[in-house]
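Intended use. Records like the one below are meant for learning the mapping from a protein sequence to its folded structure. Do not use them to infer anything beyond what is encoded.
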Amino acid sequence: MKALGIAATGMMAQQTNVDVISNNIANANTTGFKTARASFTDLIYENLSREGAVTAEEGNTRPVGLDVGLGVQAVGTVRLNTQGGLTQTQNQFDLAIDGRGYFAVNLPDGDQAFTRDGSFRLSAEGQIVNGNGYEIDPGIVLPDNTTKIEIGDTGIVSAYVAEDPVPVEIGQLTLATFVNDAGMRPLGDNLLQATVASGDAIPSLPGDEGVGILRQGYLESSNVDIVRQITDLIQAQRAYEMNSKAISTADEMMSAANQIK
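Structure written out for the chain above:
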């Protein structure tokens, strides 16, 4: 009887499902977080009777086969890159992307990572950096005695220096887009990395066709739908319980068969 192994794969798959849902719920208030969904496929099938096999001398063929599946497996987590809500912060260094795109940041090892988290700060050298101190790319350095900065929808950064009422343009922020956003690898710390599956980053200017614009003084909220996540959690729990029940039933059937003399 294969039911024990089959149901066990179902329980392991639902454990993975619950882990993914739990991570979504835990990050419901994480800036720029995108909901993930576990993806599953059925395992190979044991073919006990081939469909189309000849069943009589007259040439009659079997209309269907007898195939017994061997269970289920988790094959990936799909990130749902829908737009999160924008929350006003009044902080001049906070930026939200309204539409497609990612900020690029330079990692200490020389690689680049990408993020939707626009809660930026100033380093001791006057550079705009993220919460981990990684410099945004392209780099923006504020002049000495800067009292205020303005960042336009298209990414142009201007600074007000000392008492001068006329702002000085000091840089241009860009965004990166990808052919397959879901193929990016999550690194933690609200960072993603390009992979072969995602394709190379495509540098773009905010406001270009198919690219979002920037909103200064706002942050993008998580796109987690708590009600949907709780519903999915209940469904995963019920599926886990049914697989557990299948194991109990198979065990009882095997015990009854062993008692037959």
